[in-house]
Amino acid sequence: MGFREVSLKATQFALQKTITWIKKSDKGWSEWQRACLDAGLSHQELKTPMKIRFTSKVILFQKTLKYQDAINLCYGRIQELQGSVLDAHTWAICKVVVETMLPIVK
To answer: Can you give the residue ranges of every domain in the chain?
Structure first.
């Protein structure tokens, strides 16, 4: 089994890019609402963090992890974005960051 370099900055960028597309695209927003309903979640608006605040970055990872199923459904349903679905590595980094850092920021 090989190891990949863990980059929190790259993971944060991927999450922010996903959220930005959902918020700014009409197709993305309507599909987001549908995906949230199908995943049994409220279609709360996800927000990108302020770049300099560590706490807001941890919250970004926490929120996107909570909405993982809806994000994957949303991206998986749109043909041109199917290759852009966040991979298991990204979700694993989110989980580790949340489990490790959330107790610190509380």
So the answer is: 13-105
